[in-house]
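Tutorial handout. Part one gives the primary structure; part two gives the three-dimensional structure as tokens.
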Amino acid sequence: MKKLRRILFLALMVGLLACLCCQPAFAAVTEEEVQAQVDAVGKEAVSGNVLIWFMCAIGFLKVSQKIDSFMASLGVNVGHTGGSMLAEALIAARGFSGFKSFSSHHFGGGHSSNSTHVNAGGGGKGGGFGAGFASGGLAGVIGRKVTNNAVKTATTPSETKASGLGGLVGGAAGGIGGHIYTSSVSKGGNFANNVIGSVATGNITQMGTISGEKAVDALHSYMGHAALEAGAENIPQYQNVEIGGGRITGTEVTAEHPEGIAFGMYHADQYVAPEGQYTTVHSADGAAWYKQYAVDTVEKSPYMAPDGSIAYNESIVKKLPPTPRRKDRL
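Part two.
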């Protein structure tokens, strides 16, 4: 009990000191005064001080976690002050990149094409300093790296082996983004579906394609099947799936077609409506797709008749209708 009182007393003292130290921050400060201070010490020094401040904030979070853990062990409800050091580092990086955007916009006069700009009053939809952190700076680099690794994980065939340092960092293993994608696709999560949607509607030469067993898992997630509860009925099985370039093709096995039937799906924003019978389906990310199944088609195979003429053997097989035209090629 004595230890608890000591911790509570220290926490109260820290709070009082914080209030006393932060009181001057509430005074009216004009932009001219801020500009004068920045000119006096230099933008590099200001950025460095902010980075040190964020590192101190991380240390404070770690101390707060220890106090919260002790309080929780006594049965007192506490708030969550953070998860892991990686998460806290990402928070610090996002804050630091936001400050860099703010300072370059208001103090430097120039701007970067990748930075997020805010107005002095904090207005607008995003509002203030925190809008769009991940669009530039260190956080933007981290976000793009995670997404690129996830795409690489999805489009790399399962049999490909990672080799060397590149494999550990960003090759077939996929790094952090690969692990996030693998976990998300098994649950039909939004992260995986956004990655799949980007590949499905992207340029094959730039994004690649998803094929093999990965494509089967991806299609289950993208069509919302993976997010259904265990024991859900009427879920089709897929085979020979390929995803990319605005098309999704494969074989679908259902109770109606136990032997499997070929299907083709075409992104409605990239392709005109196909000829013949089709349906419009929507993927988990809300995109519209034209879907067609294979239909009975007469197939002719030529052979030489006894009189020397060319004759044909005719048979009925199921084939997909011709691929519809792309809108960008009309």
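Part three, for discussion. The first helix runs from residue 2 to 22. DSSP finds ten helices and eight strands in the chain.
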